[in-house]
Amino acid sequence: MFNGQPDPSLSNVGITSIILLFNPATNTDDTYYFDNLMGPDVNGPCNGFVSNPQSDFQDWDCNWNINFGYMSGQLLQSYNPAVGSVNSSKYSAKYTRVPDSNGEDVLIANFSAGSLNLSSNNIFRIQLYGPPRPFKISFQDDTTEVISFNRTISFANQWQQFPFDLSSVSGQNINRFVLFLDQGVVNFDVYFIDNIGLSSSPSSTIELNDQLVTVFPNPVDDKLFIKSSINNTEFDFFIYDSKGLQVKKGRVYNPKSINNISLELPSGIYSMIIRSKNNILTKKISVK
How many other C-beta atoms lie within 10 A of the C-beta of residue 118? Predict the structure, then answer.
């Protein structure tokens, strides 16, 4: 039994971690057991924090409101690989694919509060970091798919936020989502997942806004114009149809001037994601 302060000459103030080294500087296969790890009261980062399981699902920091029922690969809490303006969290989840011989890999996440309440918050959001690969997210009741979206991680090893509009299925039961990463491909790629939740609009969790970036006209026939009032060297844009399929992408090289984009798309409602180096904006576009 060990009971006491390892080094009485060191202050207890500012201690954030405990690291256990078993028989250091040796290379053995010994097995150790430990139990009843206790210490003085601490003021942790989640002290006083009240999580809302109806909208703040999982961030691997203070929100833990998802039960991962089944996964093909390995999911572990991990340090955020790229702390920055898109994701400032300390922790995230590290997911390593372990597909079968057909490239099938699945991650099932059940909401601990039960069926989603989409009456006011109907934008589902998730942040992903990893290789530039396609993925599918399926929202389901206990057995049946309610709605699904196909998207693509467009930037290698950068956090990207993906919003999914669930307003069209707000009256249906959604108890879980299923994430399919890079289906049909046999690899063991590593992804990071973070900040899963619901919000009332996609822009509530991003930095750009309608005052900084203007997209017009909307509705549009064909020619769409983008103008920005901030000093960014370039923008990338991605347009998705109502099924979540990417139908157009491009780059705007001088966003402080007015840039025109020829859409050449059928009539309908589309989602447009505009991304600069550290900022993301999502807009709805109506094509006549």
Answer: 18
